[in-house]
Write a structure and sequence with these properties.
By secondary structure, the protein is of the alpha/beta class. The protein has 8 helices and 6 strands.
Length: 201
């Protein structure tokens, strides 16, 4: 194949020149570059205000969407930017959940029986973050929709020693949790100079 053919068949220009692993590693490095103080805390608002990061994040999240997904759902306002990017990338519609805890309510167009995937930009330790994710899942289920997955960009509960968000969601609702990256600066796991092809997600 010549270059014109490669570019014509590639979903985007970077994928024609870099492996999925390299693109993931570069995105992760860019996301962590906005972490204040270098202590693993990530300013998720800064992450979501950068179009280049949002575009690449949406492409990776799209790969994690289960087949048959009808609608995306996120908590408003925290998840709107990344969910909008994912909706634009995939063409899927989305709804939002407003309020928290028992007051969480699904707003926007949504239909009973639809297969929904919840999108959460950042989760922390289970005792802090799971109630938010759980509130969104519960509001979606209360509306008569089905939820199979919660997708997150960053998971800062990785290695915390506490019960993980994944465990809480699985135990309560049989919902699977998938995060693209840990929210900790562990660059060695994503080194682009390492030639071993391991999925960084």
């Amino acid at each position: 194949m010549n270059l014109a053919q490669v570019l014509r068949t590639a979903p985007d220009a970077p994928s024609a020149f870099q492996s999925a692993r390299q693109r993931s590693a570069e995105l992760y490095a860019d996301i962590l570059a906005v972490a204040p103080g270098g202590d693993g805390r990530v300013d998720i608002e800064a992450v979501q205000s950068r179009p280049s990061i949002l575009r690449r994040t949406a492409a990776l999240l799209a790969e994690a969407l289960p087949p048959g997904t009808d609608r995306l759902v996120c908590a408003a306002p925290d998840g709107i930017a990344v969910t909008t990017a994912l909706a634009l990338h995939t063409g899927l519609p989305f709804a939002t959940v407003t309020g928290a805890g028992d007051d969480a309510r699904l707003t926007g167009e949504a239909h009973a029986g639809e297969h929904a995937v919840v999108v959460v930009p950042l989760v922390g330790a289970a005792q802090d973050a799971a109630p938010g994710a759980v509130s969104v899942v519960r509001a979606v289920l209360d509306a008569g929709m089905r939820v199979s997955h919660v997708l997150s960009v960053l998971d800062s509960s990785s290695g915390s020693g506490d019960r993980s968000v994944a465990d809480v969601l699985q135990e309560r609702y049989e919902v699977r949790f998938h995060a693209l990256f840990p929210a900790l600066p562990t660059f060695s796991a994503f080194s682009t100079t390492d030639q071993k092809e391991v999925d960084p997600r």
